Amino acid sequence: MQLDSAGLQVLSREECLRLLSSTPIGRIVFTDRALPAVQPVTFHLDGESIVIRTGPGSKLAAATRHAVVAFEVDEFDPDLRTGWSVTAVGQARAAHRPEEIERLAALPLTPWAPGSRDHYIVVEPEQISGRRITGEPSS
Is 135 helix (H, G, I), strand (E, B) or coil? Predict the structure, then answer.
């Protein structure tokens, strides 16, 4: 088991992808009017691509068009002091081809927010990293 300088377990890419696929909610980090912004979103992991469904005129849709974004998922138990966090960084793009939109619409991706959500953002991760805290003191 590899530990980082803070004593956290470093997760393999495979474990990061498994954890990414285990939760329906994540946070996308993007730039909005030259400032960092974070927004919780529902998503689906499609292979290694992160797919987000939003409205075509949303601030998120506009801000992520051909932009580098970060995406984060996590799970923590404060009583046991255990948990994990996975971060992916990559280029975001809008799905435009009708055949791709039709395929993405068939994914098990149900938005929680009200209103029309027929715009798909696809994040192609170039970097994926993760850490786990086990609640055990490191040596």
Answer: coil
Q: What angle do CA 131, 108, 56 make, to 5 degrees?
A: 90
Q: Which domains does the chain have, with CATH numbers?
A: 9-133 (2.30.110.10)
- Residue indicated by tokens 């992808």: 17
In whole angstroms, give the CA distance from residue 130 to residue 9: 8
Bridge-based pairing of strands 82-94 and 35-46 is unpaired
3-state secondary structure of 61: helix
Beta bridge partners of 72: 27, 87
End-to-end CA distance of the chain: 12
Burial of 85-110, coded b for 16+ CB within 10 Å and e otherwise, reads bbbbbbebbbbeeeeeeeebeeeebe
Per-residue pLDDT in tens (0 to 9) along the chain, 139 residues? 798 888 899 999 999 999 999 999 999 999 988 899 999 999 999 999 999 999 887 888 877 888 999 999 999 999 999 999 999 999 999 999 999 999 999 999 987 777 778 899 999 999 999 999 987 654 5
